[in-house]
Design goal:
single chain; about 220 residues; mainly alpha; Growth Hormone, Chain: A; 8 helices
């Protein structure tokens, strides 16, 4: 990276020390908040729509294997095969999904990702052996679509000099909420019902598909 990569932004020379870090932290946080006044409103809509979705995704992640083994009766070998099938589908989908995002835009693949995720979740909860393989496929396609279309649209909407601040703020909020999501998921799974976290995620995916279709518009002029 030192030999080949060239910086495209104008950099500022600053020193680094624990004291400098603490001094700059409030300033950095303020700048990350201010950036939302600069980026298009669609970027704010994108953040507000997908942040709750990521909350419920994080809430459910640790409990898929528990629900599969305790409720659906899936054994270790079958679960390993399902995860392998999921990985194969995901990696095989990346190239056609990338072409799809560049050909048809970012919005339609984002809507399709939520629909695919909701269908997969419904099949997972049903627990049919064949349906679990369909769940693995739909889940992988959902991830491939979302992980390709979302950052592409985010880059289209955000001037390059603000992308670091916006991404830093988004990751900060995502990790902060994710900590609470794990606690909530465990409480719902153990105290109320194992199916509740997944039903909430299913409902959120359906809402995300509708909200994306209504509130997200692709920019006529993409940021460089």
């Amino acid at each position: 990276m030192l030999l080949r990569l060239k910086e495209t932004l104008k950099t500022e020379g600053t020193g680094f020390s624990p004291a400098e870090f603490l001094k700059e932290y409030p300033k950095a946080f303020k700048e990350c908040i201010t950036v939302w006044k600069i980026v298009p409103k669609t970027m704010l809509h994108l953040f507000l729509i997908f942040t709750p979705l990521m909350f419920f995704v994080r809430m459910c992640i640790p409990y898929y294997v528990l629900y599969a083994s305790q409720v659906l009766g899936v054994d270790e070998i079958q679960w390993a095969i399902l995860q392998t099938f999921n990985s194969i589908t995901f990696y095989c989908s990346l190239l056609p999904v990338g072409k799809l995002v560049d050909t048809f835009g970012r919005k339609k693949p984002l809507v399709l990702s939520s629909i695919s995720g909701a269908l997969g979740m419904a099949l997972f909860l049903h627990g049919n052996p064949l349906g679990l393989y369909a769940f693995s496929a739909f889940s992988a396609i959902c991830n491939a679509l979302a992980f390709t279309a979302y950052p592409s649209l985010q880059a289209d909407l955000t001037p390059k000099e603000y992308r670091g601040k916006l991404l830093g703020f988004s990751n900060f909020v995502d990790c902060l909420l994710g900590s609470g999501a794990l606690l909530l998921g465990g409480f719902l799974y153990e105290v109320i019902s194992p199916i509740i976290p997944f039903l909430l995620l299913l409902a959120t995916m359906a809402f995300t598909a509708v909200a994306t279709a209504i509130f997200i518009t692709e920019p006529q002029k993409k940021e460089a």
